[in-house]
Amino acid sequence: MITLNIYYVMNVVILQQWIVNQNKRGLKMKIKKLKKIPIIIFAIVIFILSSFRQKLPLPGEGVPIPDYSMYIYHIGEFGLFSMFLMLGFYPEFKLYFLMGISLLYGIFDEVHQYFVPTRFFDVVDILCNSIGVILGIIFSLIIYKIIKSDKKWIKNKEKK
Questions:
Q1: How far apart are CA 140 and CA 35, in angstroms?
Q2: Which domain holds residue 27?
Q3: Shared domain check, 78 and 114
Q4: pLDDT tens string 135-145
């Protein structure tokens, strides 16, 4: 009778531990899936924004003054794009693969603009997109290293 009770208690404890582990795995899977949502939304936003027509100067206004803020916009846009891509996929995929995806999306964006009336394909925009991708990945790696070192520091502090 006592052995059956001990056996029963042991099975209940093992079952509870298994349930806790399954819940942790399920939560980790949900978090992994949620991390991919920002990049999907941001890629759609980039596509939509690059589909808008560009304002052209009216006849007689002369040559428009170059707007260098658009270059900063491209750098920031693709910096964020690569940061979201790193957030969703970095430990799973290699860094060079993610960088390549970001650069290809930047080229795809410019090719897409070629087919939009009043927009055009611009190599300088691709260069700015590339600079943004590189800066975004560097910034993401710095943040990733800081978070990783903080987790190690917290684990070491809990052991003491």
A1: 14
A2: 1-32
A3: yes
A4: 999 999 999 88
- Which candidate, 87, 88, 83, places its Cα nearest to that of 102? 83
CA distance 130 to 100: 10
Tokens of residue 28, six digits: 């980790």
Cα 40 to chain centroid distance, Å, stands at 8
Number of domains in the chain: 2
pTM: 0.73
Pair (22, 94) in one structural domain: no
Distance CA 91, CA 46 (A): 25
Instruction: For residue 112, tell me if it sits in a domain.
Output: yes
What is the torsional sign of CA 78, 83, 88, 94?
Answer: positive
Express each pLDDT in 90-131 by its tens digit.
878 888 999 999 999 999 999 999 998 888 888 999 999 999
